[in-house]
């Protein structure tokens, strides 16, 4: 809280006093909150609905409120907030990475949400793009292309998923956290239960952001380094199979979209004919 929330307050106050014309703040896509009614991809206009008990994420929401207040007090300043998807790389050591690298992982029975994982190099490139565009202001989701289900993360990391009933899973995670042996508080388990996937179309359109690595590619690059030794699986073959699966899936989506477009066109044509008659 001292770093993320109060630190943001002090920085924005100092920026206003010094007359700083540009302010770029890093945030996280977790501020949208993991909810059962979230759409597949969350745009920047979606309300921020993290769990009130999740103090870590609430600190980022509070920091963003300080950035908005600074923009209102100093309209001549250009404030940009970048909401980064969770990062994944061989040298990343956050709680998600430690969870996936654990021998086992407690999961919520009956749930397999889609997750995003972004390369830190893509995050740095997004910052560079913002700094090069001096007139840029507003909020941008900085996220990779593509998603993977939680079960795919467990499979690639060779992590044993231990499904537990919901009340027991939350209580076990919280107890482990309070005992100092857990990797995250129980309330944070929502992000491994419900959707919280960000849309990157605005960043592509306005900033020209194009992620070099998709979620799958970022995870494969990480797993190859972190978990590749001593595995019976050939990661070259695994990567080839994974890319073929993604290609077939994308082609299937394109066919479905084309079929829906054709169906809509036929429906409009039929309606036009009836109106003419």
Distance between the termini: 68 Å
Q: Provide the spatial order of strands within the biggest beta sheet.
A: 1-2-5
How much of the sequence lies in strands comes to: 5-15%
Helix content: 40-55%
Largest sheet: 3 strands, parallel
Mean pLDDT: 89
Number of helices: 9
Radius of gyration from the CA trace? Answer: 22 Å
Low-confidence stretches: none
Query: In one word, what is the shape?
Result: globular
Helix/strand order, N-terminal first: HEHEHEEHEEHEHHHH
How many β-strand stretches? 7
Helix and strand content put the structural class at: mainly alpha
How would the blueprint of this fold be written?
Blueprint: H1 2-18, E1 22-28, H2 55-73, E2 78-84, H3 95-101, E3 104-108, E4 114-115, H4 120-132, E5 138-142, E6 148-149, H5 150-157, E7 160-164, H6 166-178, H7 201-207, H8 215-226, H9 235-276
Parallel strand pairs: 1-2, 2-5, 3-7
Antiparallel strand pairs: 4-6
Helix pairs in contact: 1-2, 8-9
Main attributes of the structure:
two-stranded parallel sheet, 7 strands, 277 residues, mainly alpha, three-stranded parallel β-sheet, 9 helices, globular
Write up this protein.
The chain has 277 residues and is mainly alpha-helical. It has nine helices and seven strands. The strands form three sheets. It has a three-stranded parallel sheet with strand order 1-2-5, sandwiched between helices. Strand 1, helix 2 and strand 2 (78-84) form a beta-alpha-beta unit. Helix 1 (2-18) runs parallel beside helix 2 (55-73) and helix 8 packs antiparallel against helix 9. It is globular. The termini are far apart.
């Amino acid at each position: 809280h001292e770093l993320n929330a109060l630190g943001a307050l002090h920085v924005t106050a100092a920026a206003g006093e010094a007359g700083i014309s540009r302010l770029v703040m890093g945030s996280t896509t977790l501020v949208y909150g993991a909810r059962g009614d979230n759409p597949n991809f969350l745009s920047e206009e979606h309300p921020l609905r993290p769990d009130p008990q999740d103090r870590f994420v609430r600190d980022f929401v509070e920091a963003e409120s300080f950035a908005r207040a600074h923009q209102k007090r100093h309209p001549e300043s250009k404030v940009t907030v970048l909401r980064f998807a969770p990062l994944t790389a061989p040298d990343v050591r956050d709680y998600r990475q430690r969870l996936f690298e654990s021998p086992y992982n407690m999961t919520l029975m009956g749930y397999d949400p889609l997750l995003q994982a972004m390369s830190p190099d893509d995050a740095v490139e997004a910052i560079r793009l913002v700094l090069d565009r001096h007139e840029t202001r507003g909020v941008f989701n900085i996220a990779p292309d593509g998603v993977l289900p939680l079960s795919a993360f467990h499979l690639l990391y060779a992590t044993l998923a231990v499904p537990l009933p919901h009340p027991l899973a939350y209580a076990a995670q919280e107890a482990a956290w309070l005992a100092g042996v857990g990797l995250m508080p129980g309330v944070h388990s929502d992000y491994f239960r419900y959707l919280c996937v960000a849309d990157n179309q605005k960043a592509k359109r306005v900033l020209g952001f194009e992620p070099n690595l998709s979620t799958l590619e970022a995870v494969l690059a990480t797993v190859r380094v972190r978990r590749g030794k001593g595995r019976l699986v050939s990661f070259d073959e695994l990567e080839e199979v994974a890319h073929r699966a993604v290609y077939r899936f994308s082609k299937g989506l394109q066919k479905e979209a084309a079929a829906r477009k054709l169906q809509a066109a036929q429906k409009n044509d039929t309606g036009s004919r009836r109106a003419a008659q």
